[in-house]
Amino acid sequence: DVKVTQSSRYLVKRTGEKVFLECVQDMDHENMFWYRQDPGLGLRLIYFSYDVKMKEKGDIPEGYSVSREKKERFSLILESASTNQTSMYLCASSSGTAGGETQYFGPGTRLLVL
Amino acid sequence: GENVEQHPSTLSVQEGDSAVIKCTYSDSASNYFPWYKQELGKRPQLIIDIRSNVGEKKDQRIAVTLNKTAKHFSLHITETQPEDSAVYFCAASRTGGFKTIFGAGTRLFVKA
Questions:
Q1: Is residue A105 within 8 angstroms of chain B, CB to CB?
Q2: Proportion of chain A above pLDDT 70, given as a percent
Q3: Residue B10, beta-bridge partner list
């Protein structure tokens, strides 16, 4: 059974703080993704990675960076948190090197930036 | 860029009735179409998917149809039950492309 875990379920941060969200998967998946979920907007891709140390921008990368030093771990970094980054953040992973595969999601981190 | 449009945004049905959610995609190279269900406070989970080499797929009370010419695909839930109440997301992706494009979601309410 695939397990994707995220470091926190809820986070409260102040404007300007540096925020780290961590995601770990235990299924040796090549691909990992970070999304943010906002009402009425669905799931929007922030960044993804298809291999260790590889990263690609998604649709809304501004204000975010990522790190993938190990295959099982993908971190999302908010360099200087702002109130418009208050959202639900979902990590996901998938297998395969060609794309077009099922994504397995973590439980999400609800971030509030004050 | 690529996008997936999903309708309706909200759907309310009586228990036992059918529910249909429709999606349209823009990238004609898309060949994988998953549907995810997200219950309140939980993570999205795959409930059914279809690849472009078939037109329909069923799994008990749920089915998905695909019309590649029109770039439409739909989720059909028959004999709805209260536990079907959730947000449903359609998505599209293609071989060789790592990105999955999600629809905005449909909130389904099943009234007992």
A1: yes
A2: 95
A3: B107
- Summarize pLDDT for B13-59 with one digit per residue, the tens: 999 999 999 999 999 989 999 999 999 999 999 999 999 888 999 99
Q: Does A41 touch chain B (CB under 8 A)?
A: yes
Confidence of residue B88 (pLDDT cuts 50, 70, 90): very high
What type of residue is B88? Y
3-state secondary structure of A103: coil
Q: How far is CA A16 from the centre of its chain?
A: 19
Helix ranges, chain A (H) = none
CB neighbours of B24 closer than 8 A, spacing ≥ 6?
B4, B5, B70, B71, B72
* Rounded CA separation B16/B59 (Å): 17
Q: Nearest CB to A100: which of B32, B103, B104?
A: B32
Going along A1-114, which residue ranges are E strands? 4-6, 10-13, 19-25, 31-38, 42-49, 56-57, 64-70, 73-78, 87-94, 104-105, 109-113
CB atoms within 10 A of CB B65: 18
